């Protein structure tokens, strides 16, 4: 089986939604490639941007077989199309198409607040 290359998709920036691949590292497994990409991106963003900008970017991570898309900007555009097509099913699992990460976080916050108020005895959380 081929090598895997990690990538990150960002929803924020001058050019809008973009995908970028790891520049030189490949890994034996998809999980290793994603883990490395998350680590590299975290270091880069901490050094160059505010934590609010990072939060607003809504990063999505993945990995593809090395060589699946050609190098450069055009390859990254094709990767983004491929990524969006493959994550469409995950969005539908959340109950509606286009369900944004912020909405999911808000629903989780509400569910946790309800649980603390109604399910747990005071002082146990």
Task: Give an overview in words.
The protein is of the alpha+beta class. The protein has a domain at about 5-90. The chain has four helices and three strands; from the N terminus they run ββααβαα. The chain has helices at about 30-50, 50-55, 75-95, 100-120; strands at about 5-10, 20, 60-65. Strands 2-1-3 form a three-stranded antiparallel β-sheet. The radius of gyration is 18 Å and the shape is elongated.
Search tags:
single chain, 125 residues, alpha+beta, three-stranded antiparallel sheet, 3 strands, 52% helix, 14% strand, elongated
Task: Describe this structure in a few short sentences.
The chain has 125 residues and is an alpha+beta fold.
Alpha-beta classification: alpha+beta
Q: Give a count of the beta strands, DSSP E runs of length 2 or more.
A: 3
* End-to-end C-alpha gap: 47 Å
How do the strands of the widest beta sheet line up side by side? 2-1-3
**Largest sheet descriptor:** 3 strands, antiparallel
Helix content: 40-55%
Series of H and E elements: EEHHEHH
Morphology: elongated
Helices and strands in order, then pairings?
Elements lengths: L3 E7 L7 E4 L8 H19 L2 H7 L2 E6 L7 H21 L7 H18 L7
Antiparallel strand pairs: 1-2, 1-3
């Amino acid at each position: 089986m081929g090598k895997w290359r990690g990538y990150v998709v960002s929803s924020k920036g001058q050019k809008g939604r973009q995908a970028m691949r790891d520049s030189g590292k490949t890994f034996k497994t998809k999980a290793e490639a994603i883990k490395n990409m998350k680590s590299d991106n975290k270091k880069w963003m901490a050094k160059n941007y505010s934590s609010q900008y990072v939060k607003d970017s809504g990063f999505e991570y993945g990995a593809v077989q090395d060589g699946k898309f050609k190098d450069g900007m055009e390859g990254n555009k094709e990767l983004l199309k491929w990524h969006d097509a493959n994550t469409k099913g995950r969005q539908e699992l959340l109950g509606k198409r286009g369900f944004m990460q912020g909405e999911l976080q808000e629903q989780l916050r509400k569910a946790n607040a309800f649980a603390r108020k109604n399910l747990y005895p005071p002082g146990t959380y």
